[in-house]
Protein 1
Amino acid sequence: MPGMRRRRGGLVRTVGRTAVVAGTASAVAGGVHNRQSKKHQAQADQQQQAAAQQQQAAYDQGQADSAAQAQPAAAASAGNEDVYAQLERLAKLRDDGVLTEEEFAAQKAKLLA
């Protein structure tokens, strides 16, 4: 057949090409896998940092809340001591006869209200 030229090593050449294509595909897939792994790791790191910041903020808020609650408790305690001292003075005035029983009861009710 004129014009038709027969190629030599057809099977060997085909196997060689297949090996090159498979090797290139493997290298590309490995590169894509590495890139995706790094991307996912970066996202996981960001999520961990965000979670740590949220925990720290919640902890700080809890500390501020407990400090705020401690102050009114101390003030209430001081206020209770004042009421107790006033009740003692009223009782002494009642016992000394300066206040009547009704006046003492009225003042006591006013202090405890």
Note: The mean pLDDT is 77.
Protein 2
Amino acid sequence: MTTPTATQPHPPATRNAWKMALLLPVLCGVQFIDAFDVAAMGPALPKIQQALGMTPQTLQWVVTAYVLGYGGFLLLGGRLADLFDRKRLLLVALAVFVLASIVGGFATDATVLIAARLVKGVTAAFTAPAALSILLHTYDDEAKRHKALGAFLSISAIGFTGGLVLGGLMAAGTWRLVLLVPAVLALVLLILAPMVIPRPEAQAERQRVDVLGALTVTAALMALVYGVSMSSSHGWGSGLTIGSLAAAAVLGTAFVQMQRVRRSPLVPLAIFRRPGLARGNITILLLQGSYIAWQFVATLYLQNAHGWSPLEVGLIFAPGGFLTLLTAQRWAGQVMRHGAWPIATAGMVLMLVGILWTETLGSLDSILVFGVATVLMGLGFPMSYVGANISAIAGARPRNTASPPACSSPPPRWAAESSSASWPPSSDTPSMPTWRTTAPGSPSPSPPRSWPLWPA
């Protein structure tokens, strides 16, 4: 007679399968609301201006404050995501994002709205690198990591273009929805994230954060953005503009000197010797700067000069958003196969043509002009954004300090083209996590568990 066999408990992989299934959507959701929050404000700006009685000079700070907070604190956010509990960092930043969104959504004063937007930008500077760091540390399998990274970057491109469409639809009801809807989405993510994000591994050694460097570079970036912003109302020759730009130059120079002597710099200067990383970040800077500026001008022009409603503005941008939605993930796959820069370059050309095409306004019908422009940008933005980001991330990957095992597979083309034999580690560069070498006949090594957002 056979003895009944006790039911075996589900293995950990089975028990955690649902968490892994939800992890990528949660991380992509964080990335989406960060990108969406920048773009969605555009169609709502005229209504905000009317409701709060803002001047054009004050109105631009609704967008500038978010970008200022994001750009000013992004370096610090990336470094903290490397050194500390990235899960807790993400949860705290999401909670602050929800509160700031609610405050901005019920604001009755321009100052309160601008302050809320600044805080939201600061929180995005922590959520974005924390989410990316969690993704890179969680997916051990190279193929799964590539697929997850492609989805993560694709959803960001969708957020930037789709934000214009959804922002116009929401602003058609009330501009407050543009701030309150992201709060609801962030609250849902805040509930799900603690359940699906794995607990981070304990670090053997706690590194120091370059607080003085973070404060210096943040002040430099704020002074730079403030000086450029004030030039529109005070002129480039005014004392306020010149003083702000001079302060930015002095603080920026001081920051570079600090990084040269710091044992644990906020930005290791050696990264600028990595072509893929440097080109990727420069491309992202140019891409987002031009696209956000174009969005700001285009939405105000269509509503103020032509009397379009926010709904009409959202609909004219719909073809571009739809194209981005359909093609973003596909371009991520193409980058993995054919390399980042052919695709990113083609995307930047399409973006440039789309922006230059809007110069025909006045001689051609506005619907035709913006319809063609949004189609070109809907194709070009995901190509350039995904390609440049993948190149930058590949350039930041850990280097091998020993020869890889013969049985290991070669790196994908997108990673190989971002590395170069001309990048030898310098003697003053802190050591990086390395691939484990194995004895002959032993299994292939696993990818490294540590993926710093700022390479040493």
Note: Confidence is low (pLDDT under 50) at residues 1-12, 400-456.
Protein 3
Amino acid sequence: MQHIKNTDSKNENLFAIFTNLFSGLFSGDQPLKTKLKKIRGSLLIVVGYLLSPLCWWNDLVFNLPVAYGFGYGMSLISPKFFLGGTIAGYWLSNLVGIIFMQLGAGDVLQNQDQPRNFPKELGMGIATSTAYTLVILAIVHLKIVDISAFIPTEQLNTYLSGN
């Protein structure tokens, strides 16, 4: 029951954050351009959160299907590209999520039009996503998590052998 209570508390905190984000959008003291920027930023945060490693259920619903589809697309070029393409697709989906959250937070939290340092934001997103993907790869490699239910061993061996 404690796990359920913690989950409810996290959902309440997330709800409070989004309530605070949207409460200022409908007040009359901001110009339309600022409101639209905050709406765009809020949408980027939501989509980024769903794609990022911060959302505990996103892998099953979003990232793994995207990664599998990317790997499948790469395997059309060469069957040996399936595993690498799947890993690259997983990394890219996490990277996009982290960058969307960073860009969205900049839109929502910055009160003034300040210049953005996009190369720095991109670098931080790449580093964070790469570190997270390497941790997941280590967990799979050490067989802490078994992926054979998602990618059957015989199918994986077929893609790796190129037959």
Note: Residues 1-7 have pLDDT under 50 and may be disordered.
